[in-house]
Here is the input.
Amino acid sequence: MARESSKRSVARWVVAIHSLLAILVLLLVIQSWGKFSADASDLWLIFLLIDFPMAWFYFPLDEWFLPLDLGVHFRFAILPFLTVLLLGGMQWYTIARVIELSGQCRKPEAGKCIDCGYNLLGNVSGVCPECGTPARRDWPNRYPRQDSNL
Here is the structure.
């Protein structure tokens, strides 16, 4: 019985820490309001970097190989690990959708300024004439130069 109550207290700590980390991510997104140019799918990287080690820490590998019968082993080792990953994944997916739907997760269009959206296709200076932001050079040219010999 003591093992069951200790698992419940660990589960409460996992939920509390996980929720605090999710709130921290949302606060960071809100702080970068209008400047956040990453894709919402980048939150899956955060999910892997936070949830998987946290689940591994709270439900360590040595519990997976205890000489218990299959039902007890599944209940105390595998099920909590999978629950953290599943619920964590759903929580991060929800955060990603909220960011995406709120317009915070915008990728700049090719050939446009990151900050103001000014069309930079004909600009050769490398700086936006509207706001002075340096233009990104990693976009492929939308209108490649045609060879005059053809």
